[in-house]
Amino acid sequence: MSTTDEDESNPSPLIYGLFVEDHFIVESLITSVRKLLSRPNLSPYIISKLGVFLFGLERLPEVTEGISMGLSLRYELNRESDWMDIRIDYESFSLHTGFHTYDEGVGGDTSTTTVFEAFEGGSREGDSFAASEFAESFANLVSDPEREISISDDASDPFESWDLERDPTAWERLESEFL
User: Fold this and answer.
1) CA angle 75, 38, 130 (to 5 degrees)
2) Are 60 and 18 in contact (CB under 8 A)?
3) What is the pTM of this model?
4) What percent of the chain shows pLDDT beyond 70?
5) How many CB atoms lie within 10 A of CB 61?
6) Which segments within the chain are labelled E, that is strand?
7) pLDDT tens profile 95-129
């Protein structure tokens, strides 16, 4: 078998544009999602979706085909709300913050900021420091019972690829942001 045949039968996994230093950020997010799972009174739907989301996070920096999800922690009071979102799909892994406010005399205003986004294939927007601050804030909000969990699943088919193996050396093979 030629090298080309071997490469075709064992293609390299798709990788997001993350650096080795981003590993601790992802680990913090994984810990936060696991902590969310310990909340009392979660519906079976939320539990199942958090499981799929967690699977996708644990496979980072590799892209997990079949996952297209968003996890949000939202707080609403009167006519104002703010949120923190983590999105993971076949194109990117991203972190977002946002707020919405409404005044009857003026109307509503919504703002969403992409804090960090790593794209399949290696590019990225934002920096590891902003992503680290996001992960720390997200971790602090997880234990706030006033924060509502919202999860979206935009995949066209139910996720069934639980047998995908994680490459244990994927993080080690990434480039460093500082070297």
Assistant:
1) 50
2) yes
3) 0.88
4) 93
5) 22
6) 69-77, 80-88, 92-103, 107-119, 124-125, 148-153
7) 999 999 887 787 788 889 999 999 999 899 998 99
